[in-house]
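Thread: quick sanity check before group meeting

JM: Hey all, I'm pulling together slides for Thursday and realized we never actually wrote out the predicted structure for the chain we discussed last week. Dropping the sequence here so it's in one place. If anyone has concerns about the input, flag it before I start.
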Amino acid sequence: MSKIHSETSPSSLRKAKKSVVEHEPPTISESAGIRYLHFGTEWVQGAMWIRQPAELVLEYTAQMMAWLLFLEPARTQQIGMFGLGAGSLARFCLKHFRQTIQVVEWNPQVTTVCQLYFKLPQPKRLLIDHADAGVWVGDVAHHGQQAALMVDIYDADARGPVRDSLEFYQQCRAVLADVGVLTVNLFGAHESYARNIRNLSQAFEGRILTLPQIDAGNQVVLAFKGPEMSVSIEQLLLRAEEVESVYHLPARRWARSMIGRAHNGILTV
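JM (edit): ok, ran it. Output follows.
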C-alpha cells in the first residue's frame, strides 16, 4: 500500500468476478509504463512495470524483501505473504526462488485481476488462500511453516493495517518456522504506527528492526524468531552486496541503515 498520483484515473474492472462476500472492487490505472492497482481511491495497492512484470516498482515492496539480509533462500521453508496486492512480491519470489509461495488474500477479485491484468503466473507452487489473515494465522495447521512472512494488508481507505493486534502478531510469530523473519509494511506518520510497533515488539520480545521511512510514508519493520543472531557490520555489508548483486535490490542501503543499532561493530537481533 502506497500513495501515488497517476495520470490516468482508476477505472472499474467489470470483468472481475464478484464474490459472495462484499469486497472492495479492484480498479486499475496506468502511467509511464506502470500499471497500478487501486480499490477505487488514489491509494495504490500495488504496481507492475508492464514490460518487466517480475521487477519491483514501489520502493517499499523492495524493502519487504529485506529478510534476505538474514536468511538464505535456498535453505528456507515456505515463503508467505499476507495481501496479494498487484502480485508484485509473488511474481518476484516465483522468479527467484523455488520454494512454495503461500499467499493469504481476503478479496478473491484481487486474485482474478492479478491473473487477468497483472501477469500473475499460476504454477502449482503458488498457493493462494482467500481468507481473513487474522483468522488464517489462528489455524495451528499453518504454524511453523514460513521462514519468511511478508505482511501488507490495507483496505481502500488506508487507515493503517487492517490486522495489527498483539494477538495477530503473536500468531504471525507462530506461523514462522523455528528460525524466521517477518516483514510488515506500516505508515510511519500514521496514528497506528506506535500501536503496531508496541505490539510487534511485545510479540517478538523486542527483536525488531525498522528500515528508513520512504517518501510515500511507508516504513517496513523486520521482526525475528529463533536463536539470537549476531553479525558483524562487515558480514552484514558483505551479505548486502551479495543480495544486491543477485536480486538487484538496494540491500546495501538497508544494511547501512542498521549500523546505528550495532554495538562494538556487532548487530544482534
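AS: nice. Residues 16 and 109 are 6 Å apart (CA to CA). The first strand starts at residue 2 and ends at 3.
JM: adding both to the slides.
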